[in-house]
Structure formats: C-alpha cells, structure tokens
Amino acid sequence: MRLRPPARTARPQGLGTGVGVIGAILLAADSAPQAAVVGGHGHGGSPTPAGALGLTLALLTTTIVAAAAGLLRPASRLDRRGTTALATTAALGGILSLLFTDASWIPDPMAFLLLVCLGAPVSLAFSRTRPGLSGLTMTALVLTTSVAVGAQAAGLLAVVEPPDAVADTAVLAAFAAVTWLMVCTPTGRRSALVVRVSGIVASVALLAGTAQVIVLGRLDVPVTGQPLLVSAPVGGRAVDLLIVPHRPGPNLVHVGAADVSVGTSPSTMVPATARPGAPGGWALIELAEGRDRLRVEVEGRVGTVSVDPGEEPWDGPDPRDPDAPEYASAVLGQALIDPRVAVPRPSAELTADDAAELGSLMRSLAGRTIEIVGDDSPRSAQATRVLRNQAARHGVTVRDEPTESVTDVVVVAGWTGAAAARRSASRAAEPRSLHLAPWLVTSTLLSTTEVEQTFPLRHAPDDPAVRRHLLALPADFRAAAPTAVAFDTWRTAIRYPTTPTNRRYRMSESPGVPDPEQPGWLRAESLTPAFGASPRPGR
C-alpha cells in the first residue's frame, strides 16, 4: 500500500495539509534504501549502516519528544504552531516505528486506518478552528490510549505470541494517542482529568513499549542478501542463529540450542534436527523476497528476528546439499569478522596444507594396508590422488574394496560421508582404525571412542588463537566448537598469527572436566597424541 501526494486545494491548511505531511513522509521513506511499506506487503533493499543509524536516531528522538509532550501537555498551553509541531512529531514517530517493525501482521485495511488515525490529528492541528470536535478528539484519545495500555499489558504478561507483535501495537497506539492528545481541548473539569491521565498513561506506554522493542531487537536492521548471524529473544533468553545464504529460496538455519523450530509463519515452522557429522541443529526453510520476520520457537515460547533476503537469487552452494552444513560452518567463521566477504565451498578444492598433512599421514602408515573413503567432491578426488601417490612412495597398500587385510581406513569424504564411514567401521567384524582428513574435525564426528580414530590439529587446543575463536562465537555455538573449517576461515579472515603444530590425536577415554575458562569440547586432557609430530606443511 502506497499513498500518493494529495492534490492541492485552495486552502493550504486543514485536512489536505495534514494528510499531505503524512503522504510526504511515506513517499520519502519509499524512496529511501529501506522502504518497508505499511502493511508489510512491499519491500525494498537494505539501508546503509549510516542510513539505518539515522533512522534509529530519528525514531528514538521522536519517542523522547512525544513522551515528554504527553507528560507535560496537561500542564502547559500551546499555541497553534506548537500544537502542530508536536502532533507532527508524534505522527512521524508512528510512521518511523512502522518502517522499523515492517509489521506484516497488519492487514492493508487496518494499515490504512492507522494512517488515518495518525494523519487526522495532524490535519486538525493545521486547521485554524476545530468547532464541535472536542468529543471526537477526546474519544480518539481514550481509545488509542486504551489500546496502547492493553497491548503493553499483553506483552508483559506474555499472553500473546510472539511478543513483538503486541510491542509493536503498543508503540503505534501510544504514538497515535500522543498525536490526539496534542489537539484535545478540555471543556470541563472531567475532560481535563481525562486529558491529564491519558497523557501520563500514553507516555509511559510509549516509553515502555519502545524499551521492549529495543530489548526484542526490533531496531536491528538486517543486511540484505548476506549470511545473517543473529540472536532471537525467546522467553527471556537469546537463541543464536546462523541463516545461510540469507537469499530468496531455500535457506539453511543453524542453531546451537536444542528443541528449536524456525519458520516465517505458524504453518511453516520446521524443527532443527541433527545432520550426520555436523554439530548443533539444522533446519531448511524457504524465504521469500524482501524483508520479513523469522519466528523462533523454543518449548512453546516464540520470538522473532528480522530477515531481509533481498531479491537476488542465490547461485552459490545449494543449501539442500547433504554437506551444506560444512559450508555453513565456514560461513560462520567468516561472519564473525565480515559477512560481506564471500566464502568458497570447502569441498571445491584441496588446500596445500591439507595435501601436506595427508602426505604426512601416509608416512606414518608405512607398511600398512588401507582403504580410502571419499565422495564425489573435487576436494575428495584430489585428496585421493595425493594419498595414492604418497602411498606408492611409502610402501602403503591401497585396497579398493574392504578386505580382512585392511587395517586402516583413511576418510577424505565430507562430514556426511565421514559419519557413514564411522558407522560402517563400528559394525565391521575386524577392528579398523579411521584416519580423518583435516576438515573432519567436529565434535559430532569425534564424540565416540567406540571406533579408534585419529585426526589432525594444526594448532594445540590451548593455543590462544583457538581460545580467542571460541570466545568470539555466540554462546549457543561454543559448546560444540570448534570445527576445523570454521576455525580456519576465521583465522584467515582475522589474519591471526599462529604457529601450526600439525599433530595427530586420538580422543581419550576420559573427556576431561569442562573448564569455564575454555569453552568448547576440545581440551588438552581429552586428547591423546597419535603418531607423534608431523612435519609442517611445505617441508
């Protein structure tokens, strides 16, 4: 719904002028980078950080001015110019709150009535006379104040889910109440008392509602079309989310907490479930073009966060791919530094460091018979060639099919293939050792000692870089961190100087005692060295 500027009339002051002010505000907002249209049915791009900050400051300024005007209005007398200025400021605050909340839950007819409710008192303020309208203004003031108080109470008592809907309602109604308050003219002692009480109540509801909106993160403007790392307030706690790629179409949502469901409406909620080899929970959802609200539900409590996938389709890795969680983990590491930087798909190419580590592994397995488990990714194909070449140099026999002579299995597949290889090894008649590629270091893949596994760590668990990475992660993601791909991507992005150790380890029978000062699952006391130190890559 968009409003066009009204046609000019012979009288510049009055109803046409007031509606013209509101129309001009909406047209200016519509031409800005962020143009969330009233009713939530039109969408634009995302503002620059400076533009978003400017809108935020404008909203907070109008909130403070409107609340102060509501508190002081009963005790002060205003001329027509002051009444017009304050009524326009309060109406502007209502428009700005609509732009921020992008209240898609408001139907178009109700949105139109809301605009009329904000514009009518401004029109009256521009008028020279308001004969016979004292009853109308008083009724409008009482109704809007009652709606603001009722919505605020419903939000505080959590009788309506999600709470941000009632918080938005409280703020909008409070702005409308203050706007009507500016044009009320008490005609007696009783009406003066109504004005005084309504002014105080509407101002308190406005401040309380704005505070709740800030706590709920409604003033946060998501960046359009970039991976989104955000916290959703749900039932008094923050639920950390990663949305990849944050574009129209299929999107993968990564959560660290348990029992989380996400969706854009009550009918599209998807529970986050485990993926083979991947830590945390994962949900595949559909996002439409433009700004929207993502619902987050935990144990019956609901919260929301803003999303803005934009309009450009995604041409990167498919979020529906079984190994998409590995790509998302790499995105998580980059998002901690700068989400605008594109992250290549980890399985697209074998790095020089990984190739060197696999060559070192073949030296450690000299004289043994191995099987190589890969997948159809370019990285796996390149890794297999490296392993076969190094096996020929170091006297390692490679069997294409598992036989009784196979004692060791080298896994160069992705997370899903590694999880399948671990299950197969656990069911084998003869015990076999799994040797994981460097990118397979995740808490899920290494969470068992039923199968003997070795895995490389480029850096010691107590390396300051590892600890700094863990502390940089949102709280929900720390327990299952780090993953090798997230740590490597973060370390590259931050250019943190480290000294690689490139040692292989086994998981200890005792996982060790959790240390509050060292979040994450990877602790020195839970590891046992295997094979000793390997040469550094390139040597």
Quick take:
This protein has 539 residues and is an alpha+beta fold. It has helices at residues 15-31, 49-72, 80-101, 108-126, 134-157, 163-183, 189-215, 324-335, 352-364, 378-394, 415-427, 464-472, 475-478, 484-494, and strands at 228-234, 237-244, 249-255, 260-263, 270-271, 273-275, 278-287, 292-298, 301-307, 369-373, 397-399, 408-411, 433-436, 453-457, 503-507, 527-533.
Largest sheet: 7 strands, mixed
Number of helices: 14
N/C terminus separation: 66 Å
Name the strands of the widest sheet in spatial order: 11-10-12-13-14-15-16
Overall structural class, as computed from helix and strand content, comes to: alpha+beta
Q: β content, as a range?
A: 15-25%
Task: Give the fraction of residues assigned to helices.
Answer: 40-55%
**Low-confidence runs:** 1-49, 532-539
Gyration radius, to the nearest Å? 30 Å
How many strand elements?
A: 16
Task: Assign an overall shape.
Answer: elongated
From N to C, what is the helix and strand string?
HHHHHHHEEEEEEEEEHHEHEEHEEHHHEE
- The average pLDDT value, as a whole number, equals 79
Kindly describe this structure:
This protein is α+β, with helices and mostly antiparallel strands. The protein contains 14 helices and 16 strands. It has helices at residues 15-31, 49-72, 80-101, 108-126, 134-157, 163-183, 189-215, 324-335, 352-364, 378-394, 415-427, 464-472, 475-478, 484-494; strands spanning 228-234, 237-244, 249-255, 260-263, 270-271, 273-275, 278-287, 292-298, 301-307, 369-373, 397-399, 408-411, 433-436, 453-457, 503-507, 527-533. The strands form three sheets. The protein has a seven-stranded mixed β-sheet, with helices on both faces. Strands 1-2-3-7-6 form a five-stranded antiparallel β-sheet. Strands 5-4-8-9 form a four-stranded antiparallel β-sheet, with no helix packed on it. A hairpin with a 2-residue loop joins strand 1 and strand 2. The radius of gyration is 30 Å and the shape is elongated. The model is unreliable at 1-49 and 532-539 (pLDDT under 50).
